[in-house]
Design a protein that fits this description.
Order of helices and strands: HEHEHEHEHEHEHEEHEHEHEEEEEEEEH
Structural class: alpha/beta
Radius of gyration: 24 Å
Strand content: 15-25%
Distance between the termini: 40 Å
Largest sheet: 9 strands, mixed
Length: about 425
């Protein structure tokens, strides 16, 4: 997105502000599809940025849903159940039953444990509806099940007339920079699927694989797996598998990161000792780069508006929080820094808007807007106060009134939906 559009967004909607470029999002999705080839599916993990879910429901083959909140977002957006891939380490019985009542056998479901399997057995037997399951293989953490437990799940499913194992789900972590690590995982999954076929006598038609491709957030930090040649190497590893079935690549960060911008205004500048500081109206409660530690690394950013003049200086950029940890970046060389200018932090389309400490110090939530060449600007969320969520519900009359207004607004937005 060019500077003029970002300047316009800041002027029209104020700061702090999240801007998501949907044209850039589409281009990145096409880049990934071209790299993986037409035979590989693409699943968008909406946890990376739920504001992009409606757009990605058109671009991707699937939307991964990991909570009831995410499910409700998809319902409100009227995303067809056929597009949903219901996942998540914790699926409470009452939640999974609500999802099953709505989606039934039209979407696929991951199985994280034997207990979760029992929920699917109980519901499918009672309703005589066939369900498509994806038992999740653990990578050695709290997610999924080991091979022994996986075998037990297969045996139970074989006894049910309504359950079908459509595939295996595997995701071992994020920000993977090494192609060798991805190739090793593909080889391991290939061996497992062959053993399941030959020893367990079960044919698995599908594999849902989250490679956790890293995104190069910082200046001078290229990522092998994110480059075109890295994506091509991943596809070649998939093509070389002895097991022949349909593979869906599950991504969030690698799809969404580059489409996002976080705009924050410089409100004060000062020099303490030898360090030049600029204080912005945002902070690290609203922006997060994976791997950033108290501003150690330099993200991609620009100063707005217009051409920058003057001497280049090294600046430490700090937010509005009352903590020494609120350092967005330090010793970044910039020109034209002064109060009133806008700093545009790039590559903030994934997780950055979701992982910050949004309620800390009761600052408002920033507005969220999208831009698309054909549709123009769209305001997805107005700036929202958070202090109401940081006080007792039985507080002052004013607090009660504002809380009631918030509830009425939310309820109005959800009207017309039934379980």
């Amino acid at each position: 997105m060019n500077k003029e559009k970002l300047e316009y967004a800041a002027a029209r909607y104020g700061t702090p502000l999240y801007v998501f470029d949907l044209d850039r999002l589409t281009a990145q999705t096409m880049r990934l599809r071209n790299a993986f080839g037409k035979d590989v599916g693409l699943c968008y993990a909406m946890k990376a940025n739920p504001f992009l879910t409606a757009h990605m429901a058109e671009e991707a083959d699937r939307i991964e849903v990991c909570s009831m909140g995410e499910f409700e977002i998809c319902r409100k957006l009227r995303i067809p159940p056929e597009k949903l891939f219901i996942s998540g380490v914790l699926k409470k019985k009452e939640d999974i039953f609500r999802i099953l009542e709505f989606c039934q056998g039209r979407c696929a479901y991951t199985v994280e444990s034997v207990k979760q399997l029992h929920y699917f057995v109980e519901w499918s037997d009672a309703h005589m509806v066939k369900l498509r399951l994806y038992p999740r293989l653990t990578s050695g953490n709290q997610f999924g099940m080991d091979e022994d437990m996986l075998h037990s799940v297969f045996n139970v499913v074989n006894m049910s007339p309504y359950l079908e194992i459509e595939g295996i789900h595997y995701f071992s972590g994020t920000q993977k920079r090494s192609l060798k690590q991805l190739e090793k995982e593909i080889s391991m999954l290939d061996d497992l699927l062959i053993r399941i076929r030959d020893e367990w006598k079960v044919s698995i038609p599908c594999l849902e694989y989250g490679p956790g491709i890293a995104v190069p957030y910082f200046q001078g930090k290229d990522v092998q797996t994110y480059k075109d040649e890295g994506l091509t190497a991943l596809r070649e590893a998939i093509d070389s598998m002895q097991w022949k079935g349909h593979v869906t690549i599950e991504l969030g960060r690698a799809i969404a990161a580059e489409c996002g911008y976080y705009l924050t205004q410089i409100r004060d500048i000062k020099k303490n000792g030898d360090t030049e500081y600029c204080i912005v109206d945002g902070g690290n409660h609203q922006i997060n780069y994976d791997g950033q530690i108290r501003g150690m690394y330099e993200p991609h950013l620009q100063v707005l508006p217009g051409e920058q003049q003057g001497r280049e200086k090294a600046w430490t950029i700090c937010g509005a929080l009352c903590t020494v940890n609120d350092v967005l970046c330090r010793d970044v060389k910039l020109t034209g820094v002064q109060s009133g200018k806008i700093l545009a932090f790039e590559r903030t389309g994934a997780y950055s808007a979701m992982e910050g400490m949004s309620l800390f110090l009761s600052h408002p939530l920033p507005s969220v807007v999208t831009y698309q060449q054909d549709e123009g600007w769209q305001l997805l969320r107005k700036q929202r106060d958070t202090y109401l969520w940081n006080m007792p519900e039985d507080g002052s009359d004013g607090g009660k009134r504002r809380a009631a207004e918030e509830i009425t607004e939310i309820a109005g937005g959800l009207s017309g939906w039934k379980l």
